[in-house]
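Progress note, project year one: complex with NAP.
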Amino acid sequence: MNCSQFATTMRSAFSLHHFNSPRLSRHVSNVSASLQPQGQGTDTPPRIGFLGLGIMGTPMALNLIKAGVDLTVWNRTKSKCDPLISLGAKYKPSPEEVAASCDLTFAMLADPQSAVDVACGKHGVANGIGPGKGYVDVSTVDVDTSKLINGHIKSTGALFLEAPVSGSKKPAEDGQLIFLTAGDRNLYETVAPFLDIMGKSKFYLGDVGNGAAMKLVVNMIMGSMMASFSEGLLLSEKVGLDPKVLVEVFSYY
Ligand SMILES: NC(=O)c1ccc[n+]([C@@H]2O[C@H](COP(=O)([O-])OP(=O)(O)OC[C@H]3O[C@@H](n4cnc5c(N)ncnc54)[C@H](OP(=O)(O)O)[C@@H]3O)[C@@H](O)[C@H]2O)c1
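Model obtained:
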């Protein structure tokens, strides 16, 4: 049983109800009405940027392309962009140029340092973004890092949303991620159709930092539950039960 299956079992066991959003790729064209890109009419589809094409970023970007989104990609290692370019994505050679050429830019980066480098560093997003644009960081970072990035982005006149994800490679491929968002409420409403393409649920949690904090708390709970479950598997073996049957029994709770 992997993490995703474990989470599914736990969710049904505890009857947690997520806000299950429909796949809203058909609404993508409506988003342009809520964005005001300079020099563009409201009937022009929004231009979306995606920075960071690793294990998570690549399938997320791929799902946007499959949904017909006008996507521009960048990755530190350029070769990871090539498969997406061959499927129709545009390419820019820096985060700055992606942010300058797009209305909304998503970033899925390894850790706090890379998230700060890409957002605030030389040729970073903050140099290319500005009023009428939005930046959505879906990386997992700590609260202070998210607030730091928020400050740099907001100082340009652009909007910021943190949106770390729960889920792993398979949910990313299947468009089944859970977004824990916080920051600018209008930007949340604007990017909702794109989150619905990449995920199955999304939560808006208020001020910047709350998404990062929620992600850490969720991870702590998941880790504790995984540890208890592992203890249960071992105990079942010790008392002569088949751990596979325990898993099956548990799946009905
Ligand atoms: N993997 C999971 O199951 C999972 C689940 C939930 C959340 N997350 C979170 O999602 C984020 C991405 O995870 P991942 O698994 O996709 O990681 P990954 O496969 O290691 O990809 C990391 C990405 O960050 C880029 N990067 C690293 N350092 C950089 C730097 N200094 N400057 C610019 N770009 C840099 C990498 O570029 P290169 O290609 O050039 O190395 C790559 O695009 C992390 O915050 C992680 O905690 C992961």
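The two ends are 16 Å apart (CA to CA).
The longest strand covers residues 177-183.
No further modelling is planned for this target in the current period.
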